[in-house]
Amino acid sequence: MTNENCRSSFTTGLEVVDYRFFNETSISIERILFMPDAWPKVGERTRRCMLKGFPYALFFVQEQRETLVTAVAHFHRDPEHYRYRIE
Questions:
Q1: Best CA proximity match to 42, nearest among 9, 76, 79, 10
Q2: Would you place residue 84 in the very low, low, confident or very high pLDDT band (cuts 50, 70, 90)?
Q3: Taking residues 4-25, what's their average pLDDT?
Q4: Would the N or C end of the chain have less CB density within 10 A of its end CB?
Q5: Three-class SS state of 3
């Protein structure tokens, strides 16, 4: 396999993962909008929705007329990196 073929295969694989991540994020946002109170509270006003199939979570705040996603966080990242967004 040539260098170009390897690069092409690797890029195609990443595009599939990118699509799955984008799709799962979109589905999770739809779930949040449909049932915002279904997700566990992790702060005074902040809730967490875990993405299926990925080590990520969406942190969000439900306001009267809108829902604000405050962080997309990786589980293996130091929580101090995004803690200020969820308190």
A1: 79
A2: low
A3: 68
A4: N
A5: helix
